[in-house]
Amino acid sequence: MSIGIVKRSVSIAGHRTSISLEEPFWEGLREIAERDRMSVQALIGRIDAERGEQNLSSAIRVFVLTDLQHRLGMPSSIGTGAL
Question: Which domains does the chain show, CATH number per domain?
Fold first, then answer.
């Protein structure tokens, strides 16, 4: 799996935007979307709606990391200053 940044265009709330993420995060998004029986675009829309002022690419990375931590039974360090 490549670690390089991949830029993709998606439509969110009726308008197009580009998102740049490392390939492992795109793969994580695909896995989560498949598990939740939704499209990657719909999942990104949900993340976008919940992100507040956070940059969308950063919000996606945090979402994927938090999901992984949850699945591994690890306490989430996101937002605790523990990083």
Answer: 5-71 (1.10.3990.20)
